[in-house]
Amino acid sequence: MIPSLISLLMLLAAAAQDIKSREISDFTWAIGCLLGLIVNLDNYGWSYLPKALFFLAFLSAIWITKLMGEADILAYASLLVTQPSTAGYIPPAMATFIYSNLLLMAAPIYNFIKNLKNMKMLDEFDEPYFRKILALFLAKPAYKKDLERIKYYDIAEVIVNGRKKLDISRSLSGIKKGETPDREPVWIIPTYPLMPFILAGHIITILLGDPIALIFGMKISY
Questions:
Q1: What is the pLDDT of residues 15-48, one digit of tens each?
Q2: What is the pTM of this model?
Q3: Contacts of 84 (CB under 8 A, 6+ apart)
Q4: 153-155 vs 163-166, strand pairing mode
């Protein structure tokens, strides 16, 4: 109960910071991990260590390839400290990773629905219809005042042989602060505050337990 409470409070503080400024203080993780170490001294069993190291190696690969922001990786890594458990096939931190990313899959759908009113703005791009549809899922038009709030994004508009194109592949280029465009509105590929999804994913972890066990028709709570 106490490890879950520490984890939830840590993620709640991080989510509030992420929504407000898209920046998260390292003290959030430091305090959470310190409290986690204090209350979990007897819970770091040898059977937990291989699972934790496997997930830590997985997070390291994500960090090296820059597929996720540093704060997001620190959130999952901190959960390895604040909520260790030998129950289940995977540690609670990895379960949270799975649930939060499943929730994150709803973001492009939400973006598509919001973009339906912007379809005519794509007429100026020399792109086949299917790429314009894809852009509705991954990109959106934004003004400079919006970019100050979004902070992390990439500009999707490019000029190729004098023609205006959309480079949707930039959605795979990693997390970075976007450049300031010289025009507006401009189509961008935004990144979303991931902390609220991680918080929601951890709540689901507490409620449903190990997602791998659920696949086999079992419920293993942490």
A1: 999 998 888 999 999 999 999 999 998 888 788 9
A2: 0.82
A3: 3, 40, 43, 44, 45, 48, 52, 91, 92
A4: unpaired
